[in-house]
Amino acid sequence: MTDPQETVYDIAILGGGFAGVYAARELAKRMKKAGKPISIALIAEENHMVFQPMLPEVAGATLSPRHVVNPIRNLCPDSHVYKAEATKLNFEEKSLTLSVGDFVGSSKIRFKQLALCVGAKIDLSRIPGMQEHALLMQNVGDAMRLRAHFISRFEEANMATDPEIKKRLLTFVIVGGGYSGVETAGQLIDLGRAINKHYKNVAWEDCRLVLIHSRDHVLPTLHRNLGEYTAKKLSERGVEMILERRAKAVTANKIYLDDDTVIETNTVVCTVGNAPHPLIQSLNERSEVELDRGKLKVGMDMAAPGLDWLWAAGDCASIPQEDGSTCPPTAQFAMREGIMLGKNIAARLQSKDTKPFSFKAIGELASIGHLSAVAEIKGIRFSGFIAWWMWRTIYLMKLPSLERKIRVMVDWTLELFFPRDINLLNPRYSSDVSETYLEAGDKLFHKGDPAFSFYIVKSGAIELRDEGELVTTMRANQHFGERALLNGRPYIFDAIATESTTLVSIRESVFKQIVQADASFANALEQSAKTFLTSNELDTLLRRLPDERLNAPVSSLMTKDPVFVRNTDSISDVVKLLRERPKSYLPVLDADEKPIGVIRKEAFLLHLQTTSLERSDSVQTLDLLHLPHVTEDEDIRHAMTLMARSSATKALVTTSEGKLSGVIALVDVISMD
Question: Would you identify the family this protein belongs to, as annotated (predicted)?
Fold first, then answer.
């Protein structure tokens, strides 16, 4: 068994797309043939490779989602495959820092050679609302979600009585007229026509599918005639074409275009917005490499100039061609780049000369639905059924593994004889915001566990402990976990339920989005993160004070005869007392003179203004805050420890019988001469 953090791999390949997978396969084959097998680490964010050209057919219910993906471990049996996200590249150590998951946290991979094949990311932030409301078509999950979303809109519309709501539900807008946008439009219009007959209260005239494209014709990388043919065919099928327009903003119910056109819709599919991969973008700070519009510049052999260990291929690489242009970000280029990359790395490891990558595109194809496609093969243009047959034949041949080829052939054959599947399969994944229930004694997390959630106590109580010592007790309406998330570190305490407890948990990704969006909220969390001290931090604080002060009894420094109220007093009594004796906190006593909580002045007055609280109501109706309790004969060191660990500036002092006898303030301890 190998330890990824201890092993130094001969080559690390980052990325599980066409370029990364084919590079790993070719490299392993060549080194094995040369009798020099090497250690290869293939790191990918998913454990499968997606055959991107067939994703629209998954969305259109033509293909099963399982049939357009291949397990990377099956495709690359001679590689160590790790499912993880790379967050940092260390040039000096030749290592990658990986984010593995909630429980493993981060890991590190060390290497001698590195190939970057991470592709590109989607960035929708440039169009307000697009990120929050649009559906994507980047991976299998996106295609499955779009299919389920499309069918669910028909289900809702079938029950809708308001014609405006029905119209909005059945209006589908696709942004982008490239391959993905056009093929998705073709598949959705076919799916809509196929399933419409099953919905008795939905007329086809109620449905509207709109394709928005910023140029004057779709499929701009193909000949203009093919783009115009595609637009004509889609229009005949019922797709409304809006050209030379851009999306300006998106809401839950509308999309706004740059000419002030407004389309009411509950479904926007975005097929544009490619952006540089964050890891590649971070290399912009390194003087050893050069970026070209967010891509790593490499030579024609895909090696980074001046570095004998760094390579790149695929959508994240800027690879020059003989005519002075760079390789386009398409699947046919990525696959061949990967193969050549594997050959060149093998040559480098055997001290042989590398070869330049040279490839001229054979052609391009796009399926536009209803047994129709467009194609341009070696300058010859095809359209209609012949192009559709070529599209299916060529992509079937390119699909990795014989098993997947057979499965796809079966799906396509069945589609010719049977109706499309309209089962609404909408997998429910773990929510980003959810509730967690714990019984008394249950541990929520241990000190040192990777931090992946921010918690709010809904009911019950959670003790935060450090090396067995109580730090604080979190009760209803209190929160914790922000310190670890803000600092990107593991949890610094143990969290244990002391009674039946319900927590609201917010996952790290959502927490960070909120923090980035609201500066005031972020500042408040920064402050609260500093209130709970670890044992080391507490020791540092206490060492600043002389032992004679810390060892003195609390009674020597407490404020005697504190101002208080009883839980049977009225709200009017509290207001009167605060007017006569201004205090930031008022202890609340029960019938036995024992403190049961405190009223904080600011919170009380705000509550009085914003609720229907009556002046005659009892103090018992208020939610009381809790300050730490110490007895008169305990030392100031103990009081300081409780206050520091509870983020409190005061503590209530009680007699041995538990009755209130005074209040000790943190400021008095620190400023005492």
Answer: Belongs to the NADH dehydrogenase family.
- Please give the tally of structural domains in the chain: 4
The amino acid at 446: H
Q: Which residues pair with 174 in a beta bridge?
A: 211, 269
Is residue 59 one of the residues assigned to a domain?
Answer: no
Contact 641, 651 (CB under 8 A): no
Q: How far is CA 52 from CA 35, 221, 337, in A?
A: 35, 18, 17
Complete DSSP assignment for 237-265: HTEEEEES--EEEE-SSEEEETTS-EEE-
CA 254, distance to chain mean position in Å, is: 25
The pLDDT of residue 192 is above 90 = yes
Q: Which whole-number Å values give the CA distances from 106 to 84, 94, 232, in the listed order?
A: 9, 16, 52
Distances (CA, A) of 282 to 88, 277, 289, 296, 431: 8, 9, 11, 11, 30
User: What CATH number has the domain bearing residue 589?
Assistant: 3.10.580.10
Instruction: Assign residue 252 the CATH number of its domain.
Output: 3.50.50.100
Contact 100, 106 (CB under 8 A): yes
User: Which tokens go with 321?
Assistant: 């061609």
Residue 289 and residue 267 in one domain: no
Look at residue 647 and tell me whether its pLDDT is greater than 70. Answer: no
Nearest C-alpha neighbor of 628 from the set 444, 473, 419: 473
Q: What is the pLDDT of residues 439-474, one digit of tens each?
A: 888 888 888 887 888 999 999 999 988 888 887 788
One-letter amino acid at 484 equals: A
Domain that holds residue 474: 433-532
Q: Is residue 664 part of a domain?
A: yes
pTM: 0.70
Q: What share of the chain is helix, strand, coil (3-state, %, to 5)?
A: 35, 30, 35
> Residue 60: inside a domain, yes or no?
no
Residue written as token pair 């964010």: 45
